[in-house]
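Appendix B: complex inputs.
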Amino acid sequence: MIAASASLRPSQTAVPRDIGFFEWFFDADSWAGATGILASLRDTVILCAAVTLVAVAVSVPAAAILAHLRRAEVSSTWLVSISRAVPTFAIAALLVPWSLERGWGFEPWPIFIALLLLALVPIYLNTYTAIRQLPEGPVDAARALGYSERSILTKIEFTLASSLIFSGVRVAAIQVVATEPIRAFLGGDGLGRYVRDGFGQNNNTLVIGGIVLIGGLAALTGLIIAALERLVLPNGVRRLARQQGDTSP
Amino acid sequence: MTPGPLPSALVAQATNPIIEWEWVVEEWDQIWRAIVEHVTLTMMAMALGLIVSAFLAALALRRRWTMTPITATTSLIYTLPSVALFALLAPVFGNLSRWTAVLPLAGYTLLILVTNIVAGFQAVPPSVRDAADGMGMSRARRIWTVDLPLAVPFIVTGVRIATVSTVGMVTVAAIIGQGGLGRLIFSGLRRAFWTPMTVGASLSIILALVIDAMILAIGLWLAPWQRRRKGATP
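Resulting structure:
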């Protein structure tokens, strides 16, 4: 129980109601401190980054190996139908009492697990279909040249599929960032706290501030991952993806 | 009924069973009302979503160039953070209005529904369409009696995915005082009493599965040839 209490930050954002949005947003004091925007932003970014990284670490190898072995065809079509339907809020709510009982506090585990389930699906699906739908030519050629199955997967299939894999990661990351604010309504913090506290105190400045921050971060996420894609993917792969009509920006 | 701050210290200390069945029996009226509200919100959102997507899909099929902007807009709506969108509309319609919840919920269904309706109509074999034209059917008659039935499996798939995700999203609408079973979740959380939380969360998941199965059954009834085809090609 001590751990649970220690990990809680019961502090609320308090802003006088007669202060307008711009006055609040462009005040250095709003950004500093334990309940400041910077701290909340850091909380959100760390959680979202952790969720996305773990989802990549789990989904990409699993999907790549299964796709290479041509296994688990049925389960991936089944996954398509649930990919957009993961009830993140309900899952997180179910996990809260369980987490508190173990003394792990409101966060991060309930929201982490719920967001992870949300992120796993698009990454898995994109990786699987990307590798499964590659032209046979390069793989056959590599096999004829004496590549081991492992090298075929890591050097040929994975490289050729990397553009589509990346778009799966982008979709997942955007969904995670867009869903993360529910955390503030389940005993946690993060950027959702401004909307929560704004509702609680009937303070529109905070609500608007929360909307702007959440929306801004969601928009920024797409841009950051697109930039990352540019940085990481080989030029040839990107050109290939463009030629094949992958219209993802 | 918007959630205020949590009495955190109290909540953290609270230890009570994850579910107390006596409460479920005693408060069944309240639970039932939450289920009804949940289903009502889902159906309102789906009805609005279907009407709007039918128009958008018809537009996209008639004027091909509109497909790109329609997809771009519906994708953008789909990626909007739910908490922000609900919060944004709360002052416009007021917390007590159902529309504050229904509009964003309907907005989230558009991408899935439009994509599936368009895919369904595009999947109609041109030979079938030619045959219908050759038989002298009017355009409207062909669309209603040939294209639409053949597109039903795709549309039903879209409706299933959209409905299941709407049922999940309705719980989030509890942050603006709507949201059926989501309100049970919040009332449990505020009092550090886990039973309503567990009931609300698990019922919303069960409800999604039940509704999904119902729509699947309706889809098979509307387009019975799917079952035969599935049996023929394993």
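Residues 37-68 of chain A form the longest helix (32 residues).
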